Amino acid sequence: MKDLSGFHEAGRKFEQYLRVSTFPLAVRLMRSEEEIQPGFKRPSKDLGLQNFVCQNFKMVRTYGWTMAVTPEDTNCHLARLVYGWDEQDKDYMETGHKFNIGLYAKDMETSLKLEENIFRLEGKYPGLIISPLARTKVAPDVVLIYCLPAQAARLIQSYLYMKGGALEFSSTGRIGSCHEGVAKTMLTQKPQFVVLGNGDRVWGGAQDSEVMFTCPADQLDIMLEGLEATHAAGLRYPIPSYMNYAPGFQADFKEKALERAGGTIIKE
């Protein structure tokens, strides 16, 4: 996609075909803080606080704001680790393990195994800009779609319609939106199905029913072509239930139902 209008059209199509309840998100990793434009909201300046990045995802996808987030705006230890905003010295990592052990890991050995599976952006980016895709003010690197599992299935079907095979899946069950949503998608350059963890649900406002599907921005054309083609072929959301059948009852229930039914059920 060469200009913002292409991303706007992609956002509208995701909303049309998936009927998601919140805006798909365009996420751009800043190359310079000079990318922050007047009108972009900043947690530290406009809200008067530091917060978690997942909170800002929620605000953008429900309020429709465009937000710029830098280390100055963020007090989430894990997000700062994922985006490479903090130096990973010995004391820093020991603090993380102390948090993990007894909560996410039974001992240091299992905590270290978790650490081995964390995707980090290594501090190349001084911040991120989050905007609703259908009217994004920036060209994104990654698109995040908060959705229901059935909607995520439609996106998986759409991608595999074009690419074949299977979508590879791995999950740590935590740091979902920042880690597996942004960092992992950026580093692998592959779409991701993300199980949102406690942070996204406790602080980020994600509902129990929500999951996330992500796509690198340069693969949106592939995703949308597959979405439109599978929709035209009959794979739709909402997924229609098959209703063309005669209902039946277990024998004992049927006998009692007929006695009670009055004229509700026609007797044979």
TrEMBL record:
Database matches in InterPro entries: DUF169
Protein's name according to its UniProt entry: DUF169 domain-containing protein
Organism from which the protein derives: Desulfatibacillum aliphaticivorans
